[in-house]
Structures are given as structure tokens and as C-alpha cells.
Amino acid sequence: MSIAFSTVIKPSRLLLTLVATECALAGLVGVLIASGAVGNLLLPVRAALATLCVSAAAYGMLRYYRGRCAIQLDIAANGQIRMAYIAASNISRISNPAPVQLLESTTIWSHLLLLRLRLASGSVRTIAILPDCVSNDTFRVLSVACRWIAAHRGGTHKTGVAGLANE
């Protein structure tokens, strides 16, 4: 069996909903603090905490939303992975695929993949793949391919990939 395949991973709508909910709750805490419904704080302290909460919520949502983009993963039969970013406005505009290395801190669960990839520049990119990012068959194939790569890399720890023992 060959593990070679290529897939496009779309940003998760479920993860967007979860992040938006978390940011909305942080903003709500800021509003409750500002209105005086929480605690007996002086007005300057309430204003500072409320501003901090609302600013953190806005920053978190903006940062997450701006970082969303589709990703193309190409996995060769020998386990080499190449990754390219796809422009949100034009699916035909794909960056040059660059080789990446699957790190041992990758988490593979039955309904969640957290791929930790080391880019050629040395930076690490974490890609959260939920079932709504790809088709069910692609999710399964990607999970098997990542397990195969981890098993054949000769990792230094027991499971090869974090989270395998937790299923």
C-alpha cells in the first residue's frame, strides 16, 4: 500500500465557531466588568480590566481570522511531506510547495489531527484538521499516512506521535 496522496485542507468552520465563541465570552466578561456587575472595583480599575478583556477578545478573533487559509499537503510514497498555502481569494494561486518535517509532537486522534510541521526556515506550524476540513475518506487516509510516517521515522519516544496512546 502506498501512502502517496495530495489533498487540500480547508479552514475549519467548527474551529472558527469555537474561537468566535471564546472571544465573545471574553468580550462579555469585559462588558460585565465595565458595568459593575462583577466585583466591587473602583472605576479606573474596572475600565482598565474591561478594556483589557475587550481588546484581548478583538485581537484573538482578528489574529485567528487573518491566519486562516487553505493548505495543500502532498505526501510522497517515501513519507516526504510538501506543504503549500492557497490564497483565500484565488484557489488557483498556490505558493511553491516547500518540504516540511512531521514533528513528534503531532497529535493524531480519531476526530482531530494536530499536525506539527517544521518548515524549511526552522519555524514550526501547527495545522488543526477537524473532520469538516476534508472529506471523511481523506481524513482517514491522512491519519494513516501520518501514523506511517511517524512509525518509519524511528522516533525516540514510545508512541512515535503524541496522542497515539490516548485513543
Spell out the key features of this protein.
39% helix; 167 residues; disordered C terminus; 7 strands; elongated; 7-stranded antiparallel β-sheet; alpha+beta
Question: Secondary structure elements and their pairing?
Answer:
Layout: E1 5-9, H1 13-35, H2 43-67, E2 70-75, E3 81-86, E4 98-102, E5 107-108, E6 113-118, E7 124-129, H3 136-152
Antiparallel strand pairs: 1-2, 2-3, 3-4, 4-6, 5-6, 6-7
Helix pairs in contact: 1-2
Question: Can you characterise this structure?
Answer:
The chain is an alpha+beta fold. It has a domain of 87 residues. Helices cover 39% and strands 22% of the residues. The chain contains three helices and seven strands, in the order E-H-H-E-E-E-E-E-E-H. Strands 1, 2, 3, 4, 5, 6 and 7 form a seven-stranded antiparallel sheet that branches. A hairpin with a 4-residue loop joins strand 5 and strand 6. Helix 1 runs antiparallel to helix 2. The longest helix has 25 residues. 18% of the residues are buried. The C terminus is likely disordered.
Shape category: elongated
* Total DSSP helices: 3
Which ranges are low-confidence, i.e. pLDDT below 50, for 5 or more consecutive residues?
155-167
How far the N terminus sits from the C terminus, by CA atoms, comes to 24 Å
By helix and strand content, what is the structural category? alpha+beta
